[in-house]
């Protein structure tokens, strides 16, 4: 029943540091709005993860392959991230005074429900996450042999993922007292730009899937470098 859980815990820890829109927004939210705000944002993102896991777990392999390889989903998700990045950047550019007020305010009003929804939607439009969870389920089936092994494997991944996120939120919140309003302002703008870049990359992957794959294939991996060095 508990076979493969060590791998699951390690995988969940590494997954928590996967660079993407949610990663940067979680850190930024925790720094600017505090622990509770970061927690609700993360719970929203985790809810999207659970939905993706359920879709991947209960769907047939034929449906999974169709969803995984459908460029239309990448185009839609990329367009949403691009729109979000642009809107977020424009709003941030106009909100420096608001950031200063929030930074020095004793109590900052937080829309926790809105932060939960923000985390959910930002993760849910990234269909690459679904493909990642499909791969995780395949890994779980390969590493576990017991009847409920896959369930415990996925539960361990999610639990480790969430606990690591809590640590990130806590550490980010500790940094708030050392952050100036101008630094927070620049951080929010850079997060918006990074989300925009991820959206463009996703959109290009959907529009030009073959060209993107060829470009990735041209990037030499570590084994190629070692092989070239030994020649």
TrEMBL record:
One of its GO terms (molecular function) is amino acid transmembrane transporter activity. Keywords: Cell membrane, Membrane, Transmembrane, Transmembrane helix. It is a multi-pass membrane protein. The keyword Translocase does not apply. Pfam families: LysE. GO terms for cellular component: plasma membrane. Its main location: membrane. Signal peptide: none annotated. The chain crosses the membrane at residues 6-27, 39-59, 71-90, 120-143, 149-170, 190-208. It is found in: Cell membrane. This is LysE family translocator.
């Amino acid at each position: 029943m508990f076979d493969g859980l060590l791998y699951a815990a390690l995988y969940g820890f590494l997954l928590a540091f996967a660079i993407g829109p949610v990663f940067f927004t979680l850190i930024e939210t925790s720094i600017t709005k505090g622990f509770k705000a970061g927690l609700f944002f993360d719970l929203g993102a985790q809810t999207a993860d659970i939905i993706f896991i359920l879709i991947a777990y209960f769907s047939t392999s034929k449906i999974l392959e169709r969803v995984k390889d459908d460029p239309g989903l990448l185009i839609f998700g990329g367009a949403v991230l691009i729109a979000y990045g642009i809107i977020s950047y424009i709003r941030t550019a106009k909100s420096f005074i608001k950031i200063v007020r929030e930074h020095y305010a004793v109590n900052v009003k937080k829309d926790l429900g809105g932060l939960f929804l923000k985390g959910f939607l930002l993760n849910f439009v990234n269909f690459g996450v679904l493909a990642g969870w499909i791969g995780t389920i395949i890994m779980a089936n390969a590493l576990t042999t017991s009847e409920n092994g896959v369930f415990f494997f996925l539960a361990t991944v999610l639990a480790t993922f969430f606990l690591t996120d809590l640590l990130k939120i806590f550490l980010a919140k500790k940094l708030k007292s050392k952050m100036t309003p101008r630094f927070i302002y620049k951080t929010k703008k850079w997060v918006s730009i990074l989300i925009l870049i991820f959206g463009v990359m996703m959109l290009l992957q959907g529009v030009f899937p073959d060209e993107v794959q060829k470009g990735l294939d041209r990037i030499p991996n570590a084994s190629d470098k070692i092989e070239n060095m030994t020649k």
